[in-house]
Design a protein that fits this description.
Structural class: alpha/beta
Number of strands: 11
Number of helices: 11
Helix content: 40-55%
Amino acid sequence: MLGEPVARRLQADGFRVRVLARSPERALQRLGDSYEIVQGDVGRPDTLGPAVRGCYGVYINLNGEPDPASHDRIVHRGAANVAHAAAQAGVERLNVITGASVSDENAWYYGTQAKLQAEAAIRASGVPYSIWRATWFMESLPLFVRGRKAVVMGRQPHPWSWLAVEDYARMVSRAFGAPEAANRIFYVHGPERFTMRQALEFYCSRVRPEVRVSTAPLWFLSLVSRVTRNNTMQSAVDLMQYFEKVPEQGDATQANTLLGAPTTTLAEWCHRQQA
């Protein structure tokens, strides 16, 4: 959802792009043969040295399975492994995406804790870095739709500055070529603020008008997940309990000034999805 658009934007902006993939065959099928694709795994440090050798910059976009151990292994230690390999190889720039709510006070949630640890590993590597604390992406809205139903999990009262991935990819690509973007944490916010329900209703009204949007209480979903022993659902409940408590954070002024503010509105993004 995020890594592929960044790779495509980097290539469009004139970078030669090498992609690390556990399955090169799947990556080739997805991206085509205009990218250099190497096999490797962030959990296997021996595969990372050859992958980053000769690279000017590295972009890290990792997502763990929905449990604390996986987030520690992939999001935290995987990023640390890449950062170490990049430092050993003489890479000049590191970019990593974490999240707009990442902060010490929110480290009680295992996903945030892993991202904080990843940021610390990046900073400790000695490689000039840009850390991207991005808000909710518009591209996540279709994930809430199942058939003819879309469910908002919990009240989700906080408004978010919804961001289009194409705007984000442009900013990442520009940062690789901007010396002043080094050693900074960038908050990235889109141009409009909507609650989760407002954004989902807008998306469905424009792109999926047959879909009905409803709200399910988190306590009920948690009960169902325990009765059915559905760990994936319980992890989703945990995530939405987190976002129900934690509002959007950070000031995007620095990112907007240095790299150009995101401009894609939700209406424009929905129009592109229709097309």
